[in-house]
Design goal:
2-enoyl-CoA Hydratase, Chain A, domain 1, Rossmann fold, N-(1-d-carboxylethyl)-l-norvaline Dehydrogenase, domain 2, eight-stranded mixed β-sheet, 27 helices, 49% helix, 13% strand
Length: 676
């Protein structure tokens, strides 16, 4: 059947029962990412298959890691540079449609990750069978790259499971377990891994009838009337989470479906291609793809060999307790120490809630619970491979603790501090084994914040950095190595942003106006709300350290009143009820100062340039990655340094000089601006 074809990535097998099994095993990659060569090979085979129809076609992966994780993103930049984006999208559509039009049954056999283009090729098959293994995840995450499914996914998914469910999947980019996919109608069968091929053959022989409700919703929600009713509702819900000018992809997805969702498959595919090509050329898409590669770079730091099995955490406060719980969740044996059990128990209670939320399987949840043990006496110190100090921010207290730990801990054990601001050169001064000491700075809330700063000092062993990076990846965190200067990277850049917000607030500018200005730029949370969330006391402490570092004094506006520290007291710059800020009404005729955005954002950008100049991180990409994943800095802008490059360093420097003349030396351009 395939005589004369040079197949590198596909392995066809014609079974005795007449079924053709196509095994995808990309030759030049460890995963089955879809490249132009892979698509072309599939197209050549489909041409032959259409002329000599088998009893059925099964598409499966030859990789143990999973089915197909999506298109080969590494080629995106090259495709755009050559002006081939439209050709690439239409090519994929054509081949997948050729698969969909086969006059014999086709089945996608899914195990492990099935994302993006992998899900789209499965949707082009008549049936889908998935492994019930925990690793199986099915999704269409393209929205996270500033585009949406362009190989027929945005057309086929609404027609398969109904528009509301399909839109939710595509607009959030979330993935489904095999059981959830079955319940929604994305897959037809879910079986044990050894039974996948047998189940696929059964679908070819007998087919599958989906429940009437699924079929009805798939039809009814895509009619013209339904699209006109549903689309505005979906737009309204989406607008609460994203601004159209920042993230155009969700809104273009909705409008394209509204216009063309009921058209013929070919017309709908044409509309899909046209809008995805438009999105792929936006700065948002380019920057979000860049952010993807930045994440990939952080994931690649350190490898997998960390040599850590037992973690001992000292300090059961919010940070220490949550770090301990997270490590136990990710499979490590953990002991949690504090002065008395009364200080540890709240952390254990929070851990139980975390395990209940994250682990559905009762046996696995019980195992995670068993891995986390209260340890008032500190017996875990002698057993631990990694000791994490998370006590209060006091230099003398930390030094005294380290002296005691060195008497008991294993010679090869690593000692790290979760300090948020104290220089590591001060902390390590009296240690006997300074090479095995570092900072490991987590962010609050631990379960939600993806970044961990690996804080270095002049005596730290290079192997220490590698092992800690590997450990961060083992607990599903993104590590970024930073120098041990005050504030490190994230807090150093956030401090002037929060400082300026508080100063603006003290001048009478309403908090909601300040927050709205930051949100309009693209920050995930306004700075006034952020200060309240972090705590005015914490913000003042970090602000004092950073002010002293820059030879300045902390403004009087940073005075913290007892019982008014922010969210944790129920009162700060805002009043807090049920965990939410109650923001005062702003007069409708109030106009924000024209330079307010510059005051907030340029304060951050100025400090970012200073960090880059001072070598806090190795390069601009690591700085952008750290600030994006540590602060949520507008991902669609690509990070502080990328944003500076986009706008132009000379222009932004000139605006800083205007602010310095107006508000004082804190806006004076820091060293480094002329280097870009």
């Amino acid at each position: 059947m395939f005589d004369g074809l040079r197949l590198l990535h596909w392995k066809p097998e014609r079974r005795a029962d007449g079924v053709l099994v196509l095994t995808f095993d990309r030759a030049d990659k460890g995963v089955n990412a879809l490249s132009r060569a892979v698509i072309d090979e599939l197209d050549s085979m489909l041409e032959r298959i259409a002329l000599d129809l088998p009893k059925g076609v099964v598409i499966r992966s030859g990789k143990a890691a999973g089915f197909i994780p999506g298109a080969d993103i590494e080629t995106f930049g090259e495709i755009e540079a050559k002006g081939q984006t439209e050709d690439w999208i239409r090519r994929g559509q054509l081949v997948f449609q050729r698969l969909a039009e086969l006059r014999c049954p086709s089945v996608a056999v899914i195990h492990g990750h099935c994302m993006g283009g992998g899900t789209e090729i499965s949707l082009a098959c008549r049936y889908r069978v998935a492994s019930n293994d925990d690793s199986t995840r099915i999704g269409l995450p393209e929205i996270k790259l500033g585009i949406y499914p362009g190989w027929g996914g945005s057309v086929r998914m609404p027609r398969l499971i109904g528009a509301p469910a399909a839109m939710d999947l595509m607009l959030t980019g979330r993935s489904l377990s095999a059981s959830s996919a079955k319940a929604m109608g994305v897959v037809d069968r879910v079986v044990d891994p050894p039974m996948l091929l047998e189940a696929a053959l059964g679908l070819i022989q007998r087919g599958a009838q989906r429940p009437f409700k699924q079929r009805f919703m798939a039809w009814a929600t895509n009619t013209w009337l339904a699209r006109q009713i549903l689309a505005p509702q979906i737009v309204k819900a989406t607008s609460r989470k994203a601004r159209k000018e920042h993230y155009p992809a969700p809104f273009l997805l909705i409008s394209t479906w509204q216009r063309s969702g009921g058209q013929s498959i070919h017309a709908a595919l044409k509309a899909e291609a046209r809008s995805v090509v438009k999105l792929a050329q936006t700065s948002t898409a380019r920057n979000l793809i860049r952010v993807f590669f930045l994440m990939d770079r952080l994931k690649g730091l350190g490898g997998k060999d960390h040599g850590i099995s037992h973690v001992h955490v000292i300090g059961a406060g919010v940070m220490g307790g949550d770090i301990a719980a997270w490590c136990a969740l990710r499979g490590f044996e953990v002991t949690l120490q504090d002065r008395e059990m009364q200080y540890i128990q709240p952390a254990m209670d929070r851990a139980a809630k975390l395990f209940e939320k994250k682990i559905r399987n009762e046996t696995k949840r019980a195992a995670a619970t068993a891995r986390l043990n209260a340890d008032v006496e500190g017996a875990g110190v002698a057993k631990a491979d990694l000791i994490i100090e998370a006590i209060f921010e006091n230099l003398d207290a930390k030094r005294a603790l380290y002296a005691k730990l060195e008497e008991t801990m294993k010679p090869e054990a690593l000692l790290v501090s979760n300090t948020s601001s104290i220089p590591l050169t001060d902390l390590r001064a009296n240690l006997k084994k300074q090479s095995q000491f570092a900072g490991l700075h987590y962010f609050n809330p631990v379960a939600l914040m993806p970044l961990v700063e690996i804080v270095k000092h002049d005596f730290m062993a290079p192997e220490m950095e590698r092992r800690l990076a590997a450990f961060c990846r083992a607990i599903d965190k993104l590590p970024v190595p930073v120098a041990g200067t005050p504030g490190f990277l994230v807090n150093r850049i956030l401090a002037p942003y929060m400082l300026e917000a508080i100063l603006a607030h003290s001048e009478g500018i309403p908090g909601p106006v300040i927050d709205k200005t930051a949100l309009k730029f693209g920050m995930p949370m306004g700075p006034i709300e952020l200060v309240d969330t972090v705590g005015l006391d914490v913000a003042a402490s970090v602000g004092k350290i950073m002010a002293e570092f820059h030879g300045q004094s902390l403004p009087e506006a940073f005075q913290v009143e007892a019982g008014k520290r922010g969210k944790k007291d129920g009162q700060g710059l805002y009043t807090w009820k049920d965990g939410r800020a109650v923001k005062p009404e702003v007069p409708k005729d109030y106009e924000a100062p024209v330079d307010l955005e510059d005051r907030l954002i340029l304060a951050m950008l100025n400090e970012a340039m200073s960090c880059l100049h001072d070598g806090v991180v190795a390069d601009a990409d690591l700085l952008d990655a750290g600030v994006i994943f540590g602060t949520g800095f507008a991902p669609f802008r690509g990070g502080p340094i990328e944003h500076i490059k986009s706008v132009g360093a000379p222009e932004l420097k000139a605006r800083l000089e205007v602010l310095a003349a107006r508000y004082g030396s804190r806006f004076a351009p820091r060293p480094g601006w002329d280097a870009l």
